[in-house]
Amino acid sequence: METKNDKTIAALTHLSALSQYLIPLGNFIFPIIIWSSKKEKSELIDFHGKQIINFQLSLLVYSLICILIAVPAFSTAIFSSMDLPEIINRHEFFLNHIDWAANNIALTIGIISIVIFFIFKIIEVFLIIIAAINASNGEKYQYPLTINFIK
Length: 151
Prior knowledge:
Keywords: Membrane, Transmembrane, Transmembrane helix. The chain crosses the membrane at residues 18-36, 57-80, 100-133. Its main location: membrane. It is found in: Membrane. The protein is mainly α. The protein has one domain (4-136). It has helices at residues 4-15, 26-38, 43-79, 84-89, 104-136.
């Protein structure tokens, strides 16, 4: 039987991931600290701790994929119209020397990747709040599109 304290701690485990907007890596540090210190005392806290950590790790993987797509796409768009000696010897770099029309595909891929990244960040906030509400009610909540790193 879950106590009110267990439900509150489970909810706080989810909400602690929002600390990433104030403290770098807070979305990993605080949930791990709360989960590891309380996981033996409550099955509910153990379940929710695993869920938020798996969700944050999954978002990290998805974010890295978006970055690994966006950086080469933008780099290709910016540097494809310049020769290597021109890049090295040029002391000034102007974006108006780029042939934007010839690089539409690379730019589109890069922009779509960045947009997907920001959509993930917006959805993340809402899903964390939903999970915290479910945890405070003593219900088990599983995040969508989550890779189970910790079982």
